[in-house]
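Prompt: I keep going back and forth on a fold encoding question. Comparing notes only helps if you start from a blank page. Show me how you would write down a chain together with its backbone fold. Please set it down just below, with no commentary around it:
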Amino acid sequence: MITLPFHNFYEVGSVTIGGDASVRINATKTLIGREQNAGEFNFAVRDANGAEIASGMNAADGTISFSAIEFTGERLAADVKSGAAVAAVDGTQITYRYAVTVGEREDALPAGVTAVVSGYAVELVIVDNGAGELSASVNYPADANGSLSFVNQYGAESSAKVALSGNKVLKVASGDNAPDITGKYTFALTGSEGAPMPANTQVTNDAAGAIDFGEIEYTVANVFGEAAAEEPAEAENSAGAEESEEAGEAAEFAEAEDAQPTTREKTFTYTVSEAGAVSGVANDGSVYTVTVHVVDNGDGTLTVTKQSAQGAAEGMEFTFTNTYSVQPVGPTDPADPNNPVATGAVPMTKTINGRDLRAGEFEFEMLDANGAVVGTAKNAADGSVDLPGVTFDAPGNYAYMIREIAGNVGGVTYDTVTYSAVAQVVDNSDGTLGVAWEVTGADGELVSAMAFTNSYEAAPTSVQISVGKLLQGRELEAGEFSFQMRGANENTPMPETAVDGVQTVANDANGNAQFGVIGYTQAGTYRYEVSEVKGDAEHVTYDESVHAVTVEVTDNGEGQLLATLKYSDDADGIVFRNVYIAPEEPEQPTEPTEPTEPENPSEPESPTAPTKPSTGSSSQMNNTASNRVTYVSSVARTGSSVALIVAAAFALIAIGAGLLMTRRRSE
């Protein structure tokens, strides 16, 4: 929704000049040669565009009354627009000036009447006091003494006078504060050879716009020469007779009856040129020519007529029209306080909380009072914003709204603040425009800067650290091994189920163990240690390694945190390896073989008669006898010894097996 400052329409009353109003155009009519009759002379008031805005008529006493001209706010505005009026602003007061001409309708003059003074330049002034009230006044030519004096001549006289006057019009092509050009232009009058001249041949324009050279008097002498003005030679006197005198008179009378008056005529041209300069005003540049035709009627009287210059206003002999205009100003914008073209601009800044600002990532727009986009701009890396400049070609108040265009940059909350900027463009009365910005916030108060602040918050991310469990030597059972994860310090994020900064989990049947989800809301480096909890499983050797895990959390600048896991020694993951060594089974004793039955001994051979041992041979005998005894006795013992050995063997085997089982259990 676009909200722009609302400006109420300004309403004013009305004021009237002429008619029954207290302010009127004062004018009188003088007729030389006879009495004037009421209503026989007609007058018109015309504006700078030549449009008739009032009419007038004489009374028998010469007073001229004009019809009423009513001025309203609507008319004033329309007349300024059309060029019929020029407006000048001074604070809250506006002055409207109408350069008008008041002229006699010469085409409606009675027979025998010629115009001597037939027109004037007058200024009608309407003032708006800024409080809805209008007042009116009339500025007359400098030498008019507050009243316009129109003079006509009835019949011919020996001399005739013609007023040579014109008016100065300042048209306004653009702007609303045209300068006062009173006395700023000089007008020079030159005449053709022998042309009678007025007393003043160089004059300036007055406040009413009048250019008055005064009257030019024409006589037979200054038109046709001194000789032509001499009296005819006197007739010679006759000392003689009355007869002769009477005869002469009779002859003259007869000639007069038959003769027609001898007439002469002469035409004079007058040129009027302009000089001078006013800032912002383009001069007319024309040289205007006025023609005066003088006729000697041959009876001692002169008839003088004049032809006004082309384009002259009614009742004027010439009209100079200059044009005031202003040059466009700009470009300027409300966010450029260093631009000398305008005042009141304030800096425009962009900041973002939560991360660094990047050039060109945010865009702004300036809309006019109709909601149309005037232009857009993006932020610089330092946060400054240069709005597009606007060029103004006319005075007035121009309202704009500045706001940020909501984009879709991830993680960014856009500022919805809007600022109103009004450019007060004024006509400096010298052809230039001045611009003053007023920048206000949502509360309507003036601001020293247009600040837009966005906030950035990246969406959180998370990781889940898991470990693998390998058991060598037998199959793994679910939940038989436990693992712990602890953070580097108390500020290190941990899963929700962690207790005192430590989380313990157990493996599943497949050897997987997963710690809880760890959430991160800020970028940073987070470190963890993961280890196996040493248990008491029989015949299991536990992995006592401690694995370091680093989580790098980064902000991608587009509204998302990203997490990367890094394991110690650049491993791809965490695996704990345990070893199970099964106890050795005792060797089973072999079954003893059944002893074989001894064969029946063969009958011994009959012993031979012993020889009588020699000395020293008794020992051999004894040994022999002894051997035999031994043999015989060993065979006997052998049977009984096997049984004992077998029994002892079984006993030893049993004892050894028991000792082995005891040792393995202890392991």
Summary: The chain has four helices and 41 strands.
